[in-house]
Amino acid sequence: MFFNRPIHQNYDEYLIRGDHSLTNHDRLSGRYYSDRYYGAPVFGGSLLAYKTGSIITSQNAMLQEMHIFGPTLLNDFRFGFSRVVSDRQPPPDSPSVRDFGVQNIQQPQINAIKSISVSGYFSSGDQATAIFPRTTFSWTDDLRWVRGRHSIAFGVFIERDRYNQSVNNGNSSGTFTFSGDTTGLALGDLMLGQLRTFSQGWFQQLRN
Predict the structure, then answer these.
(1) How is 123-166 classified by DSSP, letter by letter?
(2) In this predicted model, what pLDDT tens digit does every residue of 77-120 receive, in sequence order?
(3) Measured between alpha carbons, how far is 62 from 172 in angstroms, rounded to an integer?
C-alpha cells in the first residue's frame, strides 16, 4: 500500500519598476521584486501524513543611474540587493517522542518528528526546524568611452554575501529504527518500544 502526503501550497509574487529622467544627462531606474512560497505543514493525527511546513521569502531590488558626460563618454552605476529567508517549521499539533512513551532522552522545546522507521511497514518524519537567511549586496560601475573607431570600457564589481544560520535543530528530535529484533516483527517492536537503533544530535543556534 502506498500513501501520498497531502500537498497545500501557495505562491505570491510582486514586481514594481520605475524609470525617471532626472536631467538630459541623467536617467534613474529602479526595480523591486518579491516572491513568497508557503507550503503548509501536515499532521492531523496521522504519522504517515506528517510533513514539515516551509515559508520561503525572496526579495531583490536594483537601482541604476546612467550619466552621460558627452557624446563619447557614458557612466552606468548599479546597486543590487537580494535576500532569501527559508523557514521550516513542524505542524503545530506535532507530537513528541514523549507522547509515545520515550522519557529518558533530551528533547527540543518545539515538538517534531525527525525520523521513525519501522522496517517493512512504514517510515515517517521530515526536516528539522530551521531558519536560513541569506543576503547579498552588489555594486557595479561601468565607464564606456568611444574614441574614433575604438570602444573602451572600464568597470568595477563588488559583492558582499552574508549567510546567517539563525536556527538549526538538526537531529535534536532523534531518529528511531525498529526492525523486529525482539519480537520478530518490526511493528511489534514498535508497540513494545524495543529499538534497533537510536541516534540524536543536539541542535545549534547561531545569530549574526
Answers:
(1) EE--PPPEEEEEEEEEEEEEEEEEETTEEEEEEEEEEEEEE---
(2) 999 999 999 888 888 888 877 776 666 677 777 788 888 888 88
(3) 40
